[in-house]
Amino acid sequence: xxxxxxxxxxxxxxxxxxxxxxxxxxxxxxxxxxxxxxxxxxxxxxxxxxxxxxxxxxxxxxxxxxxxxxxxxxxxxxxxxxxxxxxxxxxxxxxxxxxxxxxxxxxxxxxxxxxxxxxxxxxxxxxxx
Length: 129
Known about the structure:
By secondary structure, this protein is mainly α. It has a single domain, classed as Membrane associated eicosanoid/glutathione metabolism-like domain (Four Helix Bundle (Hemerythrin (Met), subunit A)). It has helices at residues 4-31, 33-37, 48-77, 82-104, 109-125.
């Protein structure tokens, strides 16, 4: 049975693919198509927005394993509740918001999205304790 947490896990994989494509596009366009299609041995700097998107992807990859583990544990133990489903949704939508928030460079906005995603993980942990 597809629980809400597993549904958001599916969305999280789709977001990972989209985020990687967005990051690669911004990075490669700024460095040139020839460089992007080659061995990329020569270091080329990228503009600030592309660098922010790359850092946002790194941050996503740092929190994704925790979300995966929680979603799977809740499914296996059948301890999912409306609160854990809300946590999964909060984590996912905060991670979606994190990308443009970080890319924009606006102070505080990125941090709010990051803390919201952590709050989502906390909501998912509660029944497992």
